[in-house]
Amino acid sequence: MGNNSKSLRNSSPHSSRREFIKKTSLGAGAAISAPYVITSNALGADDVPPASDRIVMGGVGIGNMGRGDQGAFLGRKDVQYVAVCDVRTNAREEAKRKVDDKYQNTDCTEYNDFRELMGRTDIDAIHVATPDHWHALMVIEACRNGKDVYCQKPETRTLAEGPAMVQAARRYSRVVSGGSQRVLQDYRKTVEPCWNGELGTIKSINVNVGPLSQDCNLPAETQPDTIDWDLWLGPAPWAPYNKARCDGNFGTSGGSWRSYIDYSGGGMTDWGAHHFGGATFAIDVRELQPEEVVYHEDENYLTFRYPGGKELTHNKPNTGNMVVVGTPGEKIDAKPLPSYKGTGGIYGDFIECVKTREKPFRDIEFGINTVAVSHLGIIAYQLKRSLKWDAAAQQFPDDAEANRFLDRARREPWTL
Fold this sequence. Notes:
Number of strands: 12
Structural class: alpha/beta
Mean pLDDT: 90
EC number: 1.-.-.-
Order of helices and strands: HEHEHEHEHEHEHHEHHHEEEEHHEH
Domain Gfo/Idh/MocA-like oxidoreductase bacterial type C-terminal: 217-293, 347-415
Helix content: 25-40%
Distance between the termini: 7 Å
Number of helices: 14
Domain Gfo/Idh/MocA-like oxidoreductase N-terminal: 60-177
GO molecular function, one term: nucleotide binding
Strand content: 5-15%
Enzyme class: oxidoreductase
Largest sheet: 6 strands, parallel
Low-confidence stretches: 1-44
CATH topology of the largest domain: Dihydrodipicolinate Reductase, domain 2
Radius of gyration: 23 Å
Number of domains: 2
């Protein structure tokens, strides 16, 4: 992808747009070849911020969660939504209609190839809700092109993609947010007693989630003209078209891309991003990665051990989901509980941080640490043994067999 990357903008995200609006509103429009009309909406009427103060956005992957993400951003007065991208014609056209209906014009541009959208210098931020095998490549490409990114969970398909995404966000000074709204919204009742000190010193938490993804051997079907199948596959191994292979339904046990190894880690990463995210937040290890994964062969469950002694178990027998073990009778001092910035939940948190350049609640590093738990667990179950993990080196020390699972081969030209 490096040869196709656009150079970063040298100016701040809003400067060129603000300068343009300023010039035209002061009568400089005569110097522009085509007429440009400043509407009352553009100037900020009806409680809408002027165009110079709105975040210009586009979306890549506009189906299921992508459709929901688009609606959330499109509904914000401080966002100007200008472009949609999807390799499926029907999804792309529907997304454009939604934007055009909102603004009562036909200005939204649709793209089949995400690189064309990311090359636009007027776009400040994008949201990504493609299948998982595309996430890392798109987030990195967006950062290279000076875009802030809201990326749906699970953020990665492999362990190796995580550090590359964090590095891109930091190198290009981008705001990159993961997309699990459940971490705070669904699990607050688990998180708050832990952070308030009500449970004493926290020892462990259990998560029940699954299954792992599976091989896909679906037969070839006639490929419709309404999908760019080669671009849908992208870095994944070539495979014949089958509608169930690329179906975006939320099932993880077959009949959706979430079910298959080439595109996803199955329920272990899909729902794991939510559950492990809430669990690591509750026991305050979201800034860390486990140092060991213990495989309990007799009962087929895992224990993730963190620096400092806290533990996270997966599918521990006779233990409910999100069950915390503290220290009975002990009460410790409360810690301030991190929360969303701005208004409007996790979407508003991202937009606020685009404006302020703060790290969002689900900063990419937190998302990567969460999904690393899923990937480490998958590898331990596949190898049916315990693993040591060196988070600093991002390797399994002296374990060549396990290190073969760090990444997956990608079709050219889609390399990290």
